[in-house]
């Protein structure tokens, strides 16, 4: 009779046993002598390079913090460059891992999707990378130490109108929060100065055929420039196809264009693009120590995202050590931070949890990304 | 501008037609929507990249071998997955799901093997296009148009005149009757997979010369191919060609007055229109009841 009950019963009992053991394990109150911080990084998809640089910066900070013993554990999840995956990752981190602080290097759309949940559940959401101006008003628990895209866009609008004397422009933006918010701010700022934006067109993330958008832009008379907002791969295709279509125009862009992939896809069609970026130079004497350590560990030059992430973890750790692992106390302490000497620059958080930092202008010359000075012709 | 939009439409249409053609040829003999066709398209592109950039073979040899490999991949997929399902008399839904599963599997496989960044078969110098009246067309785009037209004509003649082509039309029309007159349906199906997959491989290679290679390139491509088939009439060879060009032109001219970002949206609106108003497509057969 036992044999007849057999396989089915065995499986059922095994599952029950596993379930019981697992419940016992999860219910045991764990006493940890280190703090857990959740991390969401886009490690796959178009934002992947930024996710990786951010991870490098975090790991460097972690190495310095966890000496002589472990004080912080990072639980890293992949945001996969989509808002849905980022929200799932966030829910997993706060419900299963029970973290109260989440660092996030993903696209702005992902951050903005998570922000309402973070505010409701009182979880610190700190981004070293997302740029959308909409993040400024995303809530009390949302912080970032990357300057808001608003500053970069205003700088770009001023450059085109005041220094380059441009009157008429077109906008070509990627269809997400990053593209749409940058486009909107540029249009408002440029038109306020007396300029004219003839057309705003958008393209979907992941497309590679932009000939239709470019064809429409080509038909506009007396166009001075096109402001291009997007990530490396699509921008590369756009610049290449623009050259093939003999569209000779000044391209203005954002830091999204600063990638080897753009040069790979667009080749010499990328030369001459002027773009704005948060100021960070790896050969700046203030960051020599950080740069050297980064280069030794990762065999490439440090950049803004690594530096911001490094600073972010260092700031959070010092606050947690000071006030304990309480999200309300951490939040209040963050707002108090003024003139923190970070490798990414002097950092002070304003009432919105944003920072003000300098912007620099760069230009692509012969496949290299160089500093651009509008006064030198 | 309208001439440029027409030219853009014809180039896009040429690619859609090639995909739709291969899809239709296969559909004609197996009568289900083979989603894995999209991944044979991607495979053609990756094979050519591997041979040209990684093994440093001559570009022409790489492209020809890549088409051959795509052809073999299609046949392999049929023999290993669809043939066993045929012997078990599986329903069309099962075939559809299986083909979708194959698509997802290979798409992820390419992602794991090659990574997610965009690969290119071209060198870094970008050549400006040539003038055609007031419009611009590049050499590669001319190649795409000529290659597509050549392949479509060749296939059309093959299907109409050649014995094997006639056998394919017979199996498509009535598999049992075809068997009764001595046609081997399995051999015919294998031929249709070979031809269809080779066409998909060519389309993938042509597109990779134009825009580049990435693991997800097959998804939108196969959707556009299916839409083209539905417009032209599922199972009809001339329908696939017409549907492809119709779709390419509709997308590109459709955005003349509205934002160009709506291009893909137009494709689906066209699909909805045809499904509601003329589900059998332009050249579709009134008598045949199509089910997925």
Name a few traits of the molecule.
heterodimer; A: 377 residues; 7-stranded mixed beta sheet; 5-stranded parallel beta sheet; 12 helices; B: 292 residues; mainly alpha; two-stranded antiparallel ribbon; 2 strands; 73% helix
Structural overview:
The complex is a heterodimer of chains A (377) and B (292). Chain A has helices at 2-27, 48-65, 83-95, 108-121, 149-163, 177-192, 211-218, 232-244, 260-266, 288-298, 304-323, 327-336, and strands spanning 35-41, 72-78, 101-105, 124-127, 142-144, 168-174, 196-203, 225-229, 250-253, 274-278, 340-342, 345-347, 359-365, 368-371. Chain A has 377 residues and is an alpha/beta fold. In chain A, helix 5 (149-163) packs parallel to helix 6 and helix 11 packs across helix 12. The radius of gyration of chain A is 24 Å and the shape is globular. Chain B is an all-alpha fold and 292 residues long. Chain B has helices at 2-30, 37-54, 59-87, 92-114, 139-161, 163-173, 175-180, 185-210, 217-232, 237-254, 263-277, and strands at 130-132, 135-137. In chain B, helix 1 packs across helix 9 (217-232), helix 9 packs across helix 10 (237-254) and helix 9 (217-232) packs parallel to helix 11 (263-277). The longest helix of chain B has 29 residues, at 2-30. Classes of the chains: A alpha/beta (377), B mainly alpha (292). The interface between A and B is medium-sized, with 37 and 32 residues.
């Amino acid at each position: 009779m036992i044999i007849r009950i057999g396989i089915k019963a065995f499986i059922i009992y095994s599952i029950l046993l596993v379930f019981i053991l697992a419940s016992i394990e999860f219910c045991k109150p764990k006493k940890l002598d280190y703090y857990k911080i959740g991390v969401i990084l886009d490690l796959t998809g178009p934002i992947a390079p930024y996710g990786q640089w951010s991870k490098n910066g975090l790991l460097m900070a972690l190495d310095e913090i966890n000496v002589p013993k472990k004080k912080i554990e990072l639980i890293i999840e992949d945001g996969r460059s989509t808002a849905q995956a980022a929200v799932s990752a966030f829910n997993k981190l706060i419900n299963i891992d029970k973290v109260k602080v989440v660092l996030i290097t993903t696209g702005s759309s992902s951050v903005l999707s998570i922000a309402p949940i973070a505010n409701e559940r009182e979880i610190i959401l700190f981004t070293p990378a997302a740029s959308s101006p909409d993040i400024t008003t995303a809530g009390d628990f949302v912080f970032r130490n990357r300057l808001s895209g608003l500053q970069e866009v205003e700088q770009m609008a001023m450059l085109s109108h005041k220094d380059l004397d441009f009157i008429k422009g077109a906008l070509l933006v990627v269809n997400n929060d990053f593209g749409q918010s940058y486009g909107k701010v540029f249009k408002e700022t440029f038109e306020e100065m007396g300029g004219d934006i003839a057309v705003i067109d958008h393209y979907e993330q992941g497309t590679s055929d932009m000939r239709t958008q470019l064809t429409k832009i080509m038909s506009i008379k007396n166009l001075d420039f096109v402001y291009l907002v997007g990530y490396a791969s699509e921008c590369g295709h756009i610049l290449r196809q623009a050259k093939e279509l003999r569209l000779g125009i000044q391209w203005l862009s954002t830091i999204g264009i600063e990638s080897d992939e753009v040069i790979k896809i667009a080749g010499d069609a990328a030369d001459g693009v002027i773009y704005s970026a948060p100021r960070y130079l790896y050969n700046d004497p203030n960051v020599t120590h950080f740069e050297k350590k980064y280069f030794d560990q990762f065999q490439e030059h440090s950049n803004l995202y690594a530096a911001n992430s490094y600073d972010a973890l260092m700031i959070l750790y010092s606050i947690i050590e000071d006030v304990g692992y309480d999200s309300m106390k951490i939040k209040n302490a963050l707002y108090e931070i003024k003139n923190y000497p970070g490798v990414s620059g002097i950092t002070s958080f304003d009432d919105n949890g944003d920072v003000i930092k300098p912007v620099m202008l760069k230009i692509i010359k012969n496949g290299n990304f160089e500093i651009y000075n509008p006064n030198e012709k | 501008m309208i001439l440029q939009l027409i030219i853009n439409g014809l180039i896009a249409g040429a690619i859609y037609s090639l995909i739709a053609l291969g899809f239709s040829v296969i559909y004609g003999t197996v009568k289900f929507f083979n989603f894995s066709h999209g991944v044979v398209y991607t495979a053609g592109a990756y094979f050519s990249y591997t041979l040209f950039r990684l093994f440093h073979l001559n570009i022409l040899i790489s492209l020809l071998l890549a088409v051959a490999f795509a052809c073999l991949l299609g046949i392999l997929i049929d023999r290993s997955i669809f043939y066993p399902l045929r012997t078990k008399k599986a329903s069309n839904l099962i075939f559809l799901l299986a083909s979708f599963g194959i698509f997802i599997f290979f798409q992820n496989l390419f992602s794991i093997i090659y990574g997610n960044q965009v690969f290119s078969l071209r060198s870094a110098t970008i050549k400006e296009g040539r003038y055609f009246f007031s419009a611009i067309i590049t050499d590669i785009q001319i190649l795409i148009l000529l290659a597509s037209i050549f392949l479509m004509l060749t296939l059309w003649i093959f299907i109409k005149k050649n014995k094997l082509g006639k056998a394919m039309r017979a199996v498509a029309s009535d598999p049992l009757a075809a068997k009764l007159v001595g046609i081997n349906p399995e051999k015919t199906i294998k031929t249709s997979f070979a031809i269809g997959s080779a066409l998909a491989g060519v389309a993938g290679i042509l597109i990779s010369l134009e825009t580049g290679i990435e693991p997800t390139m097959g998804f939108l491509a196969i959707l556009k191919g299916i839409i083209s088939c539905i417009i032209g009439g599922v199972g009809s060879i001339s329908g696939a060609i017409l549907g492809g060009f119709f779709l390419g032109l509709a997308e590109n001219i459709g955005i003349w007055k509205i934002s160009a970002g709506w291009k893909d949206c137009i494709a689906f609106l066209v699909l909805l229109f045809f499904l509601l108003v003329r589900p059998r497509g332009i050249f579709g057969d009134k008598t045949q009841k199509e089910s997925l």
